[in-house]
# Entry
Amino acid sequence: MKQTYKLFQIDAFTEIPFQGNPAAVTFAQGIPKEKMQLIAKEMNLSETAFISASDSADYKLQWMTPKLEVNLCGHATIASLHYLNELGKINNRPRITFETLSGILKCPVRDNTYFMEIPQMKMDNFEGERDDLIDALGIDKNAIAKKFPFTLLQNGYLYIYSESLEALKNMQPDFDLISTLSMKYDFRDICVFTLETYDKNSFAHSRFFAPIDGINEDPVTGSSNGPLLLVLKRLGLIEDTGNDIEKTFEQGDIIGRPGRIKVFYSQKNNELYIGGKAVTIFKGDLII
# Structure
């Protein structure tokens, strides 16, 4: 017998429809993982989020690209919080917790802004051939300063600093080559960032490429913008005063889906959060 599930498509990290990063969200109690993957493929968004019951948190949360399940997704978590809020599942609770493949995530909700704790990961210098990556990204070599190392996170995210926003605008990535190099040099996805921004109140702008996950370019990536703050701190591009750090990062403008991500790091508690708003684009019934 077929069942009906409420499915929303939600743009995260924006209040404006058709900006930010779109995610589909639905309750998934009783849906097997194989069918979740088919639903994500049908939705054909960078991620579809599936919410179900949990014994260790308020809810269990899973994220699927059209190709595979991922360990962490920022924008689909923000969208999931918005989904629960619109269905009256949050009410006046100050936070929601999610059981995920990345552990229990604490997600505060304040004034229609949704926050998500980002797990902190070990960072190392990239030891592969820099020029190979520069060529694959199709970025102006002169914008990549040699004094700044490429930073590789434990989860495979690779961060590359560009001194020019114009260089980011003019990139011509070779996604097949990026996928090949990701296997050769043991990284997963690439975040290219600069301190030149569109908005005067923003601190950094980035682009994020994940072809090995089936996402050539993600519009606004919460899971990369959170660690970006710590990467900037590691490179000396954010002054380390010992106090809490709060910045606004931007992404997506270059591909017509601008989004803004608040990032907060508590030095005292050693906790990293991202936050943003969201807007529902459509609501429908998933009948399977």
